[in-house]
Amino acid sequence: MNGAAWKRWAIAGIAGAMLAAAPVYGPAIVDSAKGGTAMAAETTAASTAQRTISVSGQGTIAIQPDIAYVSFGVSTKGKTANEAQTANATAFAAVEKALKEQFGIAPKDIKTSGFYVQPEYNWSDKGQSTLVGYTADHTVTVSYRDLDGIGKLLDAVSKAGANRVNGIQFGTEKSDAYEIQAIEKAMANAKLKADAIAKAAGRSVKGVIHVQQGSVGSAPPPYYPLAKAEFAADAGGASTSVQPGEMEVTTTVSVTYEMQ
């Protein structure tokens, strides 16, 4: 091998050895960067979790009912099923006429909640039955919004032929709006608790991390049985007096705050 050829071979060998010995930095650097980012994210999350307060809040508002659901019915008897049902239809037509003409109640606000025709029996001491006739019963629930006029409505349907009055349930048709008000009170209640806890810990509330609303409930006035109303109507004189009272709308929230 002459001098020039030997020199070229030596240079090539040295270059190859250097290339083989060179460390591969690219992928290792990328993996290291990813690991550092993930570790930083985990550290931040853990740090945030250590600076949180979880509390519950409740909001309750008292409201005036704006609708009443009045339940009453017509019960009639007859020797045959047809006779009892015909008598019932006649009596109920008079009641329905009073509702529509005297009080302007729309058909959509008169809902049948029960209807039946059934036989009536007398039972002997020996357990033998004797058919004595039939009973027809038609129950309706009327949605009525003039709460001051409920007494007059009860008196009118009683005079028209309703001979069974079940009771009144008061409610509201503005439940969505009232729920929003209750939520606002619940959130304010939760914030007061969080502020107190943070202050006791020597910190302050920074902001909301998570909120979850609980159930919404409304506590209506007690169901008003109308035995008293029937008595007042029979006694004559002043109209039956019915007092709606107040309702309550309540909701709860669970809130997680970050402290600083």
TrEMBL record:
InterPro entries, per database record: 26kDa_periplasmic_antigen, SIMPL/DUF541
Name this polypeptide is given: DUF541 domain-containing protein
GO BP terms: DNA damage response
PANTHER family from the UniProt entry: SLR1258 PROTEIN
Domain of life: Bacteria
